[in-house]
Amino acid sequence: MNTGHTAAQEPTAAGRAATHRDALPVFTGLAVAAPNGLGTDAFWSATRKGVGGIGPITHFDAGAYPVRVAGEIHGFDAREHIPSRLVPATDRATQLSLVTTAWALGDAELDPADFGEFDGSVVTANAVGGVEFIQRELQSLWSKGPRYVTAYMSYAWFYGVNTGQISIRHQLKGPSGVVVTGQVGGIDALAQARRRLRDGQRFVVAGGADAPVCPYGLTAGMTAGNLSTGEDPDTAYAPFDRSARGHVPGEGSAMMILEPLGAARERGARHIYGALTGYGATFDPHPATGQPPTLARAARIALDDAGLTPDDIDVVFADGAAEAAADRAEATALVELFGPRRVPVTLPKTMTGRMYGAGAATDVVSALLAIRDGEIPPTIGGGDLAGELGLDLVTGGPRPARLDHALVLARGDGGFNSAAVVSRVP
Amino acid sequence: MNFSLDGLRTILRACAGEPENGDLDGEVAAITFEDLGYDSIALLETLSRIEQEYGVAVDEAPMDELTTPQALVDYVNSRLARETAHV
Fold first, then answer.
1. Which of A88, A148, A154 sits opposite B17 (nearest CB)?
2. Most CB atoms within 10 A, among A122, A244, A247, A298?
3. What is the CATH number of the domain that holds B40?
4. What is the chain A residue with the closest CA to B14?
5. Identity of the residue in A87, A150, A154 whose CB atom sits nearest the CB atom of B17
6. Partners of A29 in the beta sheet?
7. Count of domains for chain B
8. Could you give the number of structural domains in chain A?
9. Are the C-beta atoms of A60 and A214 separated by less than 8 Å?
């Protein structure tokens, strides 16, 4: 691969310019369930104001665990939102994905029954599987015996189950799938949705969901060594900060409806929040090789795909690992791309914790709503190194700005990098 | 011991929720599980719960014949009767 990738300096016609405008993949419905808001309106009004949802763990007694705070969704009773038939058969992540899908379809005013049964596809991201479900069944297995393990275990634990349940519930029989790429999956799912649209699908439900806040989820997460042990919810997750000590896990789901622009306009879609104009993904070389990480290259590929240059980008929704070396590497990548303090950078995930498969998908929703409202949501907590690292980090409240193009970055454990460009549709 | 339709209702609710069509408290005895919206895995779960609570081994249950609540209740009762007879 050409490491001297010069696309950012010399935009090509590979992306938007080469795409027939009617085929541009646009977002016509959005929905979020996050620790700082259950439902898009609640989430966005909290996020704009910098109201966080990280708090002491309440889903279980975390007294014996080194990790004490998380982003939990409170007040979510699956029975109020999905058929009771599905409740015993689904993990919390699946329940959240079903709820957000129904909301996103409602937001798009798109009823799958109005389309052919093979017209709609589903692509979701999930990083940890149905961990809470798995834990409960393992407890049954070892305390009572194999006959007490529920039959639903056969699928309820599986990464792909969210896509499957969404497909069944809304009768979406087009080619569907799951991406399991850790914390970048929310972006990769959108890229796969774009491929489906290019292949002729009429619409795609895409996004991500994860619910890792249970003893098994937390214990598994701790093995990566990058969960924050901070006990103060306001400071436990502090990206680009001297006190950075790892991230806080969060649970959530973000789902989006994507359609080709022409078809969306033809049906009179109520919202066209923006377009997915660029996508890039890379995988880092093993650290032992001494070669640098490749986040900047993922961003350049996405910009090139969008036919844009760094100057066109109005805001960056950054990754924000909250680990000293990774923060420095991300800042270096941003400065390399844009120059020091040349573009506003924000991390609304400081209000939710890192939601794994849902994290990057939620950032894309935030980017689209920021474009709509002309306002960059703030970063809360952390950030005292941002200036020194050459970043213009948006803190202390929302920042009004005319936004045409937003870059969303995500990294995952083990070397995943993904970047998406979302753009205003005039 | 006797297994009643109400006993089945309780177990169905607990491990498979309300039916997608109709009211579980209504006249459901002769309606197929399929029409009620319970799929095969929900039935498997139901049989497993019956086994746990009533001690009836269901490994060899003729699933394709137990298509309605009444058929399932009758099957479980026939097994219960047989086990009682063996005592």
1. A88
2. A122
3. 1.10.1200.10
4. A88
5. A87
6. A257
7. 1
8. 2
9. yes
